Each structure stands twice: as C-alpha cells, then as structure tokens.
C-alpha cells in the first residue's frame, strides 16, 4: 500500500495543477463510482442510492451565469456463486449540469460494471468498465450580437450564428480499478485509477469541433480507527488530468459516533456526525458536514472561493447537498426483503 501512495505523491509533485475539471464535486468521496467504475459496490452495503445537487457562483448578479449540477447514482452488489468471497457490481450514473447565459448543458448517463476479487483476508481489488452516453446542448438564440458583417457591410440588428449545431451526442466509455486493504483494527485504506472519455468523442457543435481529452482520475483515502471508539478519521484526495487541465482536491473528515449500533441484532442503529475541511488547489476551501442514522446519510458542503474569481463571486464559490441511502439484503427470514445499513 505504501508504494501506491508513493506513486500518487510523485505524480502530484511533478505536475502543475490548475482549474477545475468535469464532475468536480466537493463531496466526491460519497460517490466514487461517478469517477471510477472499479469502485462500484466496494462498500460494506449491498446496494445504495445517492443524489447530489450543487449550485456554483451564486453571487454573480447577471442571471444565468451560475452553474447548476445534479447527479444520481445507484449501486448493486451481486455475489459470485462460484467464488463466494468475490462479487459483481452494477450501477447507474446520471449527471447533468448547466451554466452560462447560453445555457450550455451537459448530460452523461453510464452503466458501470465491475468485478471484485478477494485476494486474501485483508486485500481486495476491483476492475470495472463503464459504457455510456454523453450529450451537450446550447441555446443558440441567446448567442447574438448587435451587428453582423455580410461581406460588404455591417448589418444592424441582433444576429444569431448560423451553421452551428444546437446539440450533439456520442457514445462514452470509461474503465478503472480500485484497491482496498483492511487492518486488524478495522482501519481501511483504498485507492483507484480510472480513465474516462476513452472514445474521445468530438465536441460536435461545428465542423471544426475538437475531440475531448481522456480524463485520468487518481484517488486515495482511508477510514482510520483511533484509540477513541467514538472517533474515526477519514482523509481523502483526488486528482484529475484532462489534456492541459489539472485539478487536485484533498482534505480530511472527522466522524463522531454518537450511538453505536448492534452488529448482530440490528435493533439499535448507529448514529454519527461528520465534518471536514478540504482544499481545491488554487480555487476554493470547502467545509463539509454530514449526519448518518438508520442507513441514511445527508450532508452539505460550502465552497469559499479563494482564487482571483473571488472578486466576482464575493468568495461564495458553491453550495452542495447530498442524500444517500444504504441497504443490506436480508440474510434470514422471508426472501426478497431488505434492511437498511445500521
């Protein structure tokens, strides 16, 4: 595991980091499957549903300039009957965002599928692939100017550019792997590598449209047990690279267990709160807060912008909220029933 973190550190130190990339969420660690198909169903739960809403650049006065992002994902674990300690994972990812007065909208839908192999008692590795669809659209009627050159003269009146597509769609494909190690004290460390937009689809608004860059994502984290039974420390870091653009975000969350649930009977449910501080390189500081009870997690994040954009945003970068529901298949009693993760 040390070699994995060493490799990650070398990559980060040897690279200049600027700007944000697609799927840039502040609470990404609650839905790693959005970035890496190898991470499908790698948690303790058998299946889960997560939805997230993010509103960015709220304080910019001109309407329509801000950015709105919605995500939805579901994950299901399917045990391998031949290899009882291994399992398949299948999911659904949907992401939609819109920004600017031209209402540039991007929508991606994918079905990540993976296979998790138990290497030994404490180590697992997962390999996945994510076929999907990627679509973008724009409101051409809002892209106007007061005069237009017709070859001889400037013609007055607001004009809209002709010969450009209002939208396009393309097949998308991603792949990745995810590794986990669990220590005797139930501390878990993990990391993954993913490659998205392998099809390098053309940004087909015009005949001269460029192709998308392959998006490389490296992530790592841990869920660390401490000497205090009611406290866990959860550091997380994620790095993106898309052509000349880079993004790095990292930080740590603290999880306090207010009431510990019973592992065998599930009569008592675990109740806990978590809060964290994260830093997006040369862009924002993000504070997070969450609450978990009866297999339900809810939380929010606030980004304080610290880049040169802070003069336009008044340092109000983004507000983000999420909801996550986690469940186990019921092991006894009537078939088909489920229970929430306590």
Describe what this molecule looks like in 3D.
There is one protein chain. The chain is built from 2 helices and 18 strands. The protein starts with a helix and ends with a strand. The protein has helices at residues 2-13, 310-313; strands spanning 47-56, 67-79, 87-99, 104-110, 113-118, 123-137, 144-149, 154-160, 167-182, 188-196, 215-225, 231-242, 245-259, 271-280, 284-293, 296-305, 316-329, 338-340. The model is unreliable at 1-21 and 264-268 (pLDDT under 50).
Mean pLDDT: 83
Instruction: Give the amount of beta strand, in percent.
Output: over 45%
Domain module count = 1
- How many angstroms separate the termini? 29 Å
Low-confidence stretches: 1-21, 264-268
Based on CA inertia axes, which overall geometry fits?
A: globular
Q: What share of residues is helical?
A: under 10%
The Rg value, from CA coordinates, equals 22 Å
Structural class: mainly beta
Name the helix and strand elements from N-terminus to C-terminus, one letter apiece.
Answer: HEEEEEEEEEEEEEEEEHEE
Which CATH class?
Mainly Beta
Could you name the CATH homologous superfamily? monomeric porin ompg
Total strand segments = 18
Might you state the CATH topology name? Porin
| Number of helical segments with 4 or more residues | 2
CATH architectural label: Beta Barrel
Largest β-sheet summary = 16 strands, antiparallel
